Amino acid sequence: FTGHVGDYFGSGMPEELNLTEESAQALIHRGKERYGIYCAVCHGASGDGQGITGPYGVPGIANFHLDTFKPASYPDGRMFETITVGKGMMGAYGYNIPVNDRWAIIAYVRTLQAAKEAK
Questions:
Q1: Is-contact 46 40, C-beta < 8 A?
Q2: What is the rounded CA–CA span in Å between residue 55 and residue 52?
Q3: Which residues pair with 89 in a beta bridge?
Q4: Quick one: average pLDDT of 12-41?
Q5: Is pLDDT at 10 greater than 90 in this prediction?
Q6: Does the pTM of the predicted model rise above 0.90?
């Protein structure tokens, strides 16, 4: 519920989601839907930070394809916390997006990142 494991941000999906291959696919699909509703307007459909709000003066929109947002430097738990409490100009979505949907969005963002790097 926090993205933290002790004093650190967790990496990967929580065990409480009980993911199987089938349920992981459903989680990613749910994440795509929720991402389209809550995130794409700023972060763009592909996660490149080129959503429709940028031209209207919203500054500093994260491009998820930069190395600073990849799992090695931006763990899943940190992304969960950012969605929950906000960061910079991004407001908090903890009250608007249920916990499992936040994890679904993160799974989808990681899928976008992997797809961008695929040959």
A1: no
A2: 7
A3: none
A4: 93
A5: no
A6: yes
Going by C-alpha positions, the residue among 105, 114, 113 that lies closest to residue 27 is: 105
The neighbouring-strand residues paired with 5 are 8
- CA distance linking residue 80 with residue 99, whole number of Å: 9
Q: pLDDT grade, residue 102 (50/70/90)?
A: very high
Run of H or E including 5: strand 4-5
Structure tokens at 82: 């950012």
Residue 87 amino acid letter: K
The pair of structure tokens assigned to 112 is 């976008």
DSSP string of 8-49, one letter each residue: EE--S--GGG---HHHHHHHHHHHHHHHHHHTHHHH-TTSSS
Q: What share of the chain is helix, strand, coil (3-state, %, to 5)?
A: 50, 5, 45
What's the token pair of residue 19? 């993911």
Q: Phi and psi (nearest 5°) for 115?
A: -65, -40
- Separation of alpha carbons 34 and 105, rounded Å: 6
Residue type, 20: T
